[in-house]
TrEMBL record:
Gene3D superfamilies documented for this protein: 3.30.1120.170, Alkaline Phosphatase, subunit A
Lineage of origin: Bacteria, Bacillati, Bacillota, Bacilli, Bacillales
Keyword presence, Iron: no
Family: Belongs to the LTA synthase family.
InterPro entries the UniProt entry points to: Alkaline_phosphatase_core_sf, LtaS-like, OpgB/LTA_synthase_biosynth, Sulfatase_N
Residue ranges annotated for the Sulfatase N-terminal domain, each copy included: 227-519
Record-given protein name: LTA synthase family protein
Keywords: Cell membrane, Membrane, Transmembrane, Transmembrane helix
Transmembrane segments: 32-54, 61-85, 105-127, 139-159
A Pfam family matched in the record: Sulfatase
Main location class: membrane
Organism: Planococcus notacanthi
Length: 606
């Protein structure tokens, strides 16, 4: 092969190496060029070699297409990790078609430097014009064989390693290797780690409690025979409850409601890639979500022993309400699996006062109120699951829906927009609760209100936002502030004002509701009755590296793509040295998550 024949070939692969190196440095803060050359680059080089071999006479067109796809992948992964703080899986590409995905905030997530991933396309134009002849096929065959040999070694090694956290796995074994390992684990069921099973007694002991049958809990059945309303509030975090900004309450209606409620202020989100739909899954099954794959996207359609089905045996009719497309997050599959008898989505609500993805919360609550008379005539008791949507990122509200007079420094800031949207959501919840009271339904109901996941997270929260958050909170905005969501139980003459600081998670919502209603559930759940048990152990898979846990005294963040492991005191969020107790909790969390996967396996695609 002549020297000139080899030059364009060398330049093409050199550009790819530079781009792959930039990707590794940006995403993983990689310092080792040897790791890039031996682990990350060969997989991409093998793909490029295969493309060139298949292209034959259309070699430059193939190079441009491959280059563009690679740039798009790197660009997308960069934005994804900024928002979700984790590496996306191959399955997450399906989320790009979701109407409420990160694409709505792409202009806020993107940095002008990110577009440098596309810069080499310009250089390829010059190379293509300079070298009209195609690269010699024989040279690419040798390269492909060499890269294939290297890749085979790295892939075989990667498949032998457990995937505790996808981002950390990708850092150590390569991005493409991590995707292949997830696909392999999914097809062989090794993603579920084991088929371990725990009895209810063993599960509770793992959390640090002595098991007691639910029917013997002190609060069992205190709301027996009541209607049930569950209000899941978009992006509602706990730090806004009870706080003021220049004398203005952020949640005046929820604050007022606390005087007749049991308020759990130490409850953590546990959502996976399905975010809001994962919160619905947990609140209605008591089971954990998948983590890196939206649970609703993997459901086989098999019926799950859910809150709606269990209550149906007690004479309840169920309905769920959400002002979005029912196909979003595969809710057209999720809702039949959960057993709702009536489903109301954007197609059923009046198309008025649209904010973001659909009709505003006030339209949603008015619609729910309008359905109540018919449902009360139809069913002995009603269970209404209401999912709000207006307080969704980027939290931009029309002026007529802004209730706060923001200080100048909050105007136009992400935190300012967030507080405005939460204040709006609080107003609509207050009006709906008052509607229930006016109709005499409140006295006959049990009502649960909780947040689905954090709103203030990712790189959308700028340094200026963080400073304003610190001023607002009186302390540095921590992971605990980010992940805690309020959980409020209320209803006529049920509770006196009480704040409960014991640790809880979203998987605890269904078991707690059933205990209050005096209904026993024969199927296993990951959660427990928050009113009875004082200790807890929560596994985390999303927004934090896999293997992370939250325990009644400790908060552990496992090693991730860029940062090392860290152990915090849960109350103060001060760093602690890793001790034998923490090591035990790490092992217990692995057992917990294996059991969670075992329970979930019956309902998701293999």
């Amino acid at each position: 092969m002549k020297k000139n024949d080899a030059l364009p070939y060398i330049l093409i692969f050199l550009l790819l190496l530079i781009k792959v190196s930039a990707f590794r440095v940006l995403i993983f803060d990689t310092k080792s060029i040897l790791h890039i050359v031996l682990i990350e680059f060969p997989m991409w080089a093998l793909l490029l070699s295969a493309v060139l071999l298949l292209a034959k006479k259309r070699i430059w067109l193939a190079v441009f297409i491959f280059n563009l796809l690679t740039s798009v992948i790197f660009f997308t992964v960069t934005l994804y990790i900024r928002y979700y703080s984790t590496i996306p899986s191959y399955y997450d590409l399906q989320q790009l078609t979701q109407s409420s995905s990160v694409s709505n905030t792409i202009s806020m997530l993107a940095n002008p430097w990110d577009f440098l991933f596309f810069l080499d396309a310009i250089l390829l134009v010059f190379i293509a014009r300079r070298f009209e002849k195609t690269v010699k096929i024989v040279a690419m065959k040798y390269t492909a064989v060499t890269m294939a040999a290297i890749c085979a070694i790295t892939i075989v090694y990667a498949l032998q390693q457990p995937i505790i956290d996808v981002s950390y796995f990708a850092k150590e074994n390569g991005f493409l290797q991590s995707q292949l390992a997830q696909l392999y684990n999914r097809s062989t069921e090794t993603a579920h780690a084991s088929s371990s099973k725990l009895s209810a007694k063993e599960l509770e002991e793992l959390k640090g409690n002595k098991y007691v049958e639910v029917s013997k809990h002190d609060n069992f059945g205190i709301a027996e025979g009541r209607h049930l309303f569950v209000i899941q509030v978009e992006s509602l975090q706990n730090f806004v409850i009870g706080r003021t900004l220049h004398g203005q309450e952020i949640t005046p209606n929820l604050n007022k409601l606390l005087s007749e409620s049991a308020y759990f202020s130490n409850v953590f989100q546990q959502v996976g890639a399905g975010t809001t739909s994962d919160a619905e899954w947990m609140a209605n099954t008591g089971l954990y979500p998948q983590g890196m794959i939206p649970t609703a996207n993997s459901l086989t359609g098999k019926e799950v022993p859910s809150l709606a089905r269990t209550l149906k045996d007690e004479g309840y009719g169920s309905a769920t309400y959400h002002a979005d497309d029912v196909t979003f997050w595969n809710r057209d599959v999720l809702y039949p699996v959960l057993g709702y008898e009536e489903v109301f989505s954007i197609d059923d609500l009046p198309n008025i006062k649209t904010v973001g993805f659909g009709p505003a919360d006030e339209v949603l609550f008015d619609f729910v109120a309008g359905e109540l008379p018919r449902q009360l005539d139809t069913y002995e008791r009603i269970y209404a699951n209401i999912v709000t949507v207006t307080s969704h990122t980027p939290f931009e509200m029309p002026g007529a829906m802004e209730y706060l007079n923001l200080p100048a420094e909050y105007e136009g800031m992400y935190i300012g927009n967030y507080l405005q949207s939460i204040r709006y959501a609080d107003e609509q919840i207050g009006l709906f609760i008052q509607e229930l009271k006016d109709r005499g339904i409140y006295e006959e109901s049990l009502i649960a209100i909780f947040g689905d996941h954090s709103g203030m997270h990712g790189t959308l929260v700028t340094e200026e936002d963080r400073q304003l958050l610190s001023n607002f909170l009186g302390h540095t905005y921590s992971l605990k502030d980010q992940f805690t969501i309020p959980l409020i139980f209320t209803g006529g003459n049920l509770f006196e004002e009480a704040e409960m600081t014991r640790l809880g998670g979203q998987a605890d919502i269904m078991p707690t509701l059933l205990a209050l209603l005096g209904v026993e559930h024969d199927e296993p759940m990951m959660g427990h009755n928050l009113f009875h048990y004082k200790k807890n152990l929560l596994g985390m898979r999303y927004y934090m590296p896999g293997g992370s846990y939250i325990q009644s005294e400790q908060f552990y963040k496992a090693p991730g793509a860029k940062l090392p492991e860290v152990l915090y005191d849960l109350k103060s969020m001060e760093k602690r040295s890793k001790n034998s107790e923490a090591k035990k909790h790490i092992r217990d969390t692995e057992t917990l998550m294996n059991y969670a996967d075992t329970l979930l396996k019956d309902y998701i695609e293999e």
